[in-house]
Amino acid sequence: MKKLGRHLYAARKSKGLTLSGAVKETGVDAGLISKFEHGKRLPSLANLTAFAQAYQLSFPELKKLWLAEKVVDLVQYEADAAEILALAESRVEYLAGEKALKMDKIPSAVQEKLSKIDTLKAKWGK
User: Pfam family of this protein, just one (predicted)?
Assistant: First the structure.
């Protein structure tokens, strides 16, 4: 939780916000903000969204840090934590491969239309 907490603290300071200013901007209780920044507790996804908006941070990047902290929290006291993480990584790679295989079975006309979604999102500013 420390890396995410340090990131939130640095973002708050770079915005020139005091703790009370952060409360006004985020709607999150001062005690919780302090716990998040000191790595004593993980914010909820709703709180993470509030921080991203108030501090003008990338929500996807914050969410990556948040998920990484959750994983670390699960395995940090395990003697074989590195092995557990390696197994999890191989499982994620397998699932990514399965997803790619499923995409191969989609008819090419549908794949072509799906590939245009990003272009449309960019044009619409989403």
Answer: HTH_31
